[in-house]
Description:
Strand order of the largest sheet of chain A: 6-7-8-3-9-10
Number of helices of chain B: 10
Largest sheet of chain B: 4 strands, antiparallel
Oligomer: heterodimer
Number of strands of chain B: 4
Number of helices of chain A: 7
Distance between the termini of chain B: 25 Å
Distance between the termini of chain A: 12 Å
Strand order of the largest sheet of chain B: 2-3-1-4
Helix content of chain A: 25-40%
Strand content of chain B: 5-15%
Structural class of chain B: alpha+beta
Largest sheet of chain A: 6 strands, mixed
Radius of gyration of chain B: 31 Å
Structural class of chain A: alpha/beta
Amino acid sequence: xxxxxxxxxxxxxxxxxxxxxxxxxxxxxxxxxxxxxxxxxxxxxxxxxxxxxxxxxxxxxxxxxxxxxxxxxxxxxxxxxxxxxxxxxxxxxxxxxxxxxxxxxxxxxxxxxxxxxxxxxxxxxxxxxxxxxxxxxxxxxxxxxxxxxxxxxxxxxxxxxxxxxxxxxxxxxxxxxxxxxxxxxxxxxxxxxxxxxxxxxxxxxxxxxxxxxxxxxxxxxxxx
Amino acid sequence: xxxxxxxxxxxxxxxxxxxxxxxxxxxxxxxxxxxxxxxxxxxxxxxxxxxxxxxxxxxxxxxxxxxxxxxxxxxxxxxxxxxxxxxxxxxxxxxxxxxxxxxxxxxxxxxxxxxxxxxxxxxxxxxxxxxxxxxxxxxxxxxxxxxxxxxxxxxxxxxxxxxxxxxxxxxxxxxxxxxxxxxxxxxxxxxxxxxxxxxxxxxxxxxxxxxxxxxxxxxxxxxxxxxxxxxxxxxxxxxxxxxxxxxxxxxxxxxxxxxxxxxxxxxxxxxxxxxxxxxxxxxxxxx
Lengths: 224, 287
């Protein structure tokens, strides 16, 4: 396997209310790898992703992302880690009062690029997801599939080393699901490591990729 | 600051979205600033009068009636050597009589009737006005009174120290009232911005998800608070200016606050607004 982008060593996550979300999980995702994270709802998939984005810290064990020990990261360093990780959600999480272009520009604004550079790069990634012509629309004027593609464009705007997707096709029709999956494939082909959390086994079966299965917080099975 | 334009745009958008709440925050600041401004104006005007009077402060030192020119000269030398004395002008008995006639022309026959000039020679002693506190002036006057050949020394002590005390009371009361109202106004700003932040918590979460630092998320809200502070301050200044103009049409001798007061006031309210919103936004940053 190529150099690791995500490494988990004996990771346990226990929430304050005593719920054990992850129990002694060890797993690695290499540079440029595409993996599905599967398991029923409540299995710990979201916690798994939140540990990578430093929204949560492990109770035990070590989470390493792009060479950084997430548990040891200082609060003020977390934003810089997140700029290397693109995230896509089931509910898209677009800013409804801003245009498609402005949504995609947001991470570039945060990075402090000049307005013209922001525009140029945002248009570039919108072209990748095939929505450059809808750049002036507001998210709610778009279909679900289009909104998810905007979210994906935003997630890859900073050319992240890692792309995480939490049930990205949960709200989409099968046809559009397939379209979005092909998009992930294309992004993965450019060298971005991708972890897609889903409980949609049809999607997983159709894509020939590694599967990390979690059941009740434990690593259940891995297939490649 | 490369993102200043973005922060300003966001701040103005937030103000627009805030509507009536933002207006309430601005008015709260205006009210606090206006009350503080009224006290500041009163303080400033009292201080100005006080400084003006003090800068031309002099003590009339009356010499004993029987004293001759030579000894009068010696007293003058003595007076000029006292610390705090800038100048001592001799007014001879003849000159005093002339001044009397000049001041009260219709009573000039009064002096003639007396036959002999009843006025004593005196010195008008000028003091270093800016540096002398009223208590120090009082001590100096006592010293002058003790000089051999001096009959009495007179100056406007009571009035001056009363004026100084009044200015100080107005200053202290104004600072206290202004402080309390200012704190209340800042609480209003905190809750206003708090609601604005709450309404935008999803946006904040998204921004943090795509790698925004706490500072980046906070900045537009801080700018908004700052602008609320400045708007409120400006409204209060406009009202205060109008009030001063109004009084002046009724021939009240009152002047508007100088630039330093205006600048300091605006800075304080901008800072208050900015700090208030900084506090308000902090609890929403833990994403």
